[in-house]
Amino acid sequence: MNLLRRPEAGENGRYHHITPENANWKYVGFEAYDLKQGETLTLAASDNELCLVLLSGRADVTTPNLQLSDIGDRMDVFEDKAPHAVYVKNGEAVTVKATTDLELAVCAAPGHGNHESRHIAPADMSREARGEGTNTRHVCNILPDNEPADSLLVVEVKTPNGNWSSYPPHKHDQDNIPAESYLEETYYHRLNPSQGFVFQRVFTDDLEIDETMSASDKDVVMVPRGYHPVGAPHGYDSYYLNVMAGPKRTWIFNNHPDHEWMLK
Description:
Jelly Rolls
């Protein structure tokens, strides 16, 4: 099972195009775009709700009921700033015009029309440090489960070089609330400096899935189920954007029993 997607040049600056159909799962979609200043991208209305994350750069964003002018103030994902994001209701088209060079993530999952399109400003996002020692990482909750959406959960994580993240290994692949929730997940990786790499392992208890990957800058790792830790080698800081969705919009995970001792 190949869970690693490398960037591939596509139309309108798109270099990732992950859908439930080509990922062989049911819920999560993910696209990434590099737009030059002045370029415009229009995404047609669909059954999916979207969360547009302005990873770096500025843009005008327009939906039928929302007009945002020149939003965004982070020029690099490794700046110590939260991003700007836009929630787009299912059934609404959206147009993005890059007012500077723009790195844009489009996160998608089934929408049910329960929430209006809105700007998610950096001040609306909670930020926190998790872990300690070489397990320290820095989290920005872009669209967590306590903020309005039908299916999507979106978070970004920065991990200093030499540290581990999504660690101890945890999973969320059982629709068994309140013990655990089923959520598919994508990891969009960035590295600083960009020639670096991280290691990510995806494995299940029975090892039916057991794949360890070297992910480079702008790669995506897909997690259909199983545990999924990330290690950042010395000298290279890690950034990743997570998109999660499943039958119920809640994040309930379980740590691997062999490794949970380190939290006690």
